[in-house]
Design the sequence.
């Protein structure tokens, strides 16, 4: 490995696409292929309905499990992340609020855990945690949830930043006015640092980093599709939605291809993307050995990366 | 005699201090109300979910909530006095 490569690591590969096109299988195959190179590879299932356990025919959990010397698999448990997050927030509230208002708040708070939007946030928390803990990997492969949740996951940092920046503007205005008041009233005494403003600033920094991560060269999005009308038009829409937030698709994986199938239409539409073709495995692909055999039989499909 | 003068001087200084404080208080009265109003708006923007107003992405609310006890109080207080906005305005402007 040369110096350039070490600097760039870990490479993040996302596998996205319509439900049922074979995101999990393609990501599993890619991970096994990379691990055999041998790159240190971590395969992460971000789909709340996990199926890496079915593909590898063994149980996985939050804690990554070794499948081979260089390959680990982890399943993100979004309930765990939501729960942990709520608990942390509740504790912080108990520390800062007066007893009676904290007590009142508890009722409201219990409702919050059913709020929409927490699921993708849980994924984002898990994602940050993975980047922190497994930065030593060469490749981290993400097997994403079907389109809707995945798109919300990708756009979350972008939307959040818009809100945070607006809130910070207002907060700065308030802070300035408070400064004026304190200058006149208690001349010379500095007012205490605004904790909310400081928090907003640190959040903005945090989300800015995430956005940079999504936009950087080390993040590559693989769009999985089949050679049929439905997944083709969905792929088209996904590309549109992602380009709205400036995320480009790096590679198209056409999965479940029969021998000599014509894919000219896809190749024409996605002429800017690399194209990988995966042949249909009629007997199904389950178990580590079967995945390995498939890769050996179709090395050309993985070569280009 | 000397102590009397000292005492009178101290009284004057004290009186001046109090009137200074009052004047300073008066000078910032309106701007203080404005800040309370802005605090309320900020509270509603972030914590609107608690009084039935669509809010930002819920995780922003959750991140800021632990630090916003004052805004939370102001907001709930304003909800209680919301039926009499004119009365509030008159008291800000000092109209009886």
Sequence:
């Amino acid at each position: 490995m040369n110096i350039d490569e070490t600097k760039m690591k870990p490479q993040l590969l996302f596998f996205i696409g319509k439900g049922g096109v074979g995101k999990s299988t393609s990501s599993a195959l890619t991970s096994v292929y990379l691990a055999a190179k041998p790159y240190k590879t971590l395969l992460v299932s971000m789909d709340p309905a996990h199926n890496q356990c079915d593909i590898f025919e063994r149980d996985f959990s939050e804690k990554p499990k070794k499948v081979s010397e260089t390959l680990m698999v982890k399943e993100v448990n979004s309930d765990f992340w939501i729960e942990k997050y709520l608990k942390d927030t509740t504790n912080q509230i108990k520390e800062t609020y007066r007893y009676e208002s904290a007590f009142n708040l508890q009722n409201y708070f219990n409702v919050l855990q059913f709020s929409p939007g927490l699921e993708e946030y849980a994924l984002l928390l898990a994602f940050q945690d993975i980047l922190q803990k497994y930065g030593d990997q060469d490749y981290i492969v993400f097997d994403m949830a079907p389109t809707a949740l995945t798109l919300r996951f990708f756009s979350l940092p972008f939307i959040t930043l818009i809100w945070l920046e607006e809130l910070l503007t207002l907060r700065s205005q308030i802070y300035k006015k408070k400064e004026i008041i304190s200058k006149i009233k208690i001349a010379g005494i500095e007012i205490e640092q605004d904790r909310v403003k400081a928090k907003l600033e640190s959040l903005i920094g945090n989300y800015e980093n995430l956005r940079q991560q999504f936009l950087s060269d080390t993040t590559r999005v693989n769009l999985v599709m089949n050679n049929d009308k439905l997944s083709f038009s969905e792929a088209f829409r996904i590309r549109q939605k992602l380009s709205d937030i400036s995320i480009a698709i790096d590679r198209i994986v056409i999965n479940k291809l029969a021998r000599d199938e014509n894919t000219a239409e896809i190749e024409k539409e996605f002429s800017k993307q690399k194209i990988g073709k995966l042949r249909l495995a009629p007997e199904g692909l389950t178990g580590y050995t079967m995945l390995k055999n498939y890769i050996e039989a179709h090395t050309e499909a993985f070569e280009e990366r | 005699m000397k102590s009397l003068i000292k005492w009178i001087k101290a009284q004057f200084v004290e009186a001046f201090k109090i009137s200074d404080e009052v004047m300073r208080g008066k000078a910032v009265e309106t701007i203080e109300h404005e800040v309370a109003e802005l605090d309320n708006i900020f509270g509603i923007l972030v914590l609107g979910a608690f009084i039935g107003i669509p809010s930002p992405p819920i995780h922003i609310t959750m991140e800021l909530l632990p630090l916003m006890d004052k805004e939370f109080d102001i907001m709930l207080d304003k909800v209680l006095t919301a039926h009499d906005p004119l009365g509030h305005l008159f008291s800000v402007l000092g109209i009886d």
Observations:
- The interface with chain B takes residues 85-86, 89, 92-93, 95-98, 101, 105, 108, 112, 115-118, 121, 156, 159-160, 163-164, 167, 170-171, 173-174, 177-178, 180-181, 184-185, 195-196, 199-200, 203 of chain A (CB under 8 Å).
- Residues 3-81+114-147+218-303 of chain A form a domain with the Rossmann fold fold (CATH 3.40.50.300).
- Residues 1-6 of chain A have pLDDT under 50 and may be disordered.
- The beta strands of chain A are 11-17, 41-45, 65-66, 71-75, 139-143, 219-226, 249-257, 274-279.
